[in-house]
Design the sequence.
């Protein structure tokens, strides 16, 4: 077992239909950070039903943040930093609305799943000699 980073992506297992949202990659700094799809070329997970799910970036689809992405991120950050204080000392920014805007923005940045090839297969079961001895008795 080695270090890895997490990838923000949700899907369902094509075999059993369970929701899977814990993907890993070795493409990043391997410091257990959460990365977006634009930051990786490969990510993977396994399902409790024994299937392996893997995404590999298609050739020539790597994307970087464009200037519009950076401008939108800057606007959202300014909302956090430049909040209004009313006469009673209360913050006039609706934090729930701001949180939804940030989530929506991040989802747009990471919604490039069509740039990946998806494969899945049943993981082989590994049996030990002890398991075989137990089954034979």
Sequence:
């Amino acid at each position: 077992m080695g270090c890895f980073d997490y990838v923000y992506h949700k899907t369902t297992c094509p075999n059993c239909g369970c929701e899977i949202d814990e993907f890993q990659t070795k493409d990043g700094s391997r410091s257990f950070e959460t990365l977006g799809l634009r930051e990786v070329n490969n990510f993977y997970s396994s399902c409790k039903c024994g299937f392996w799910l893997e995404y590999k970036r298609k050739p020539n689809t790597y994307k970087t943040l464009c200037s519009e992405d950076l401008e939108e991120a800057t606007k959202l950050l300014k909302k956090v930093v430049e909040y209004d204080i009313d006469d009673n000392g209360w913050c006039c920014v609706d934090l729930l609305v701001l949180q939804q805007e940030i989530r929506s923005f991040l989802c747009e940045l990471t919604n490039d799943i069509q740039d990946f090839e998806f494969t899945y297969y049943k993981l082989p079961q590994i049996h030990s000699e002890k398991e075989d001895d137990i089954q034979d008795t």
User: Anything to note?
Assistant: Strands lie at 5-7, 11-12, 19-20, 23-25, 34-35, 42-46, 51-57, 116-122. The chain has one domain: 5-125. The first helix runs from residue 67 to 81. Residues 5-125 form one domain.
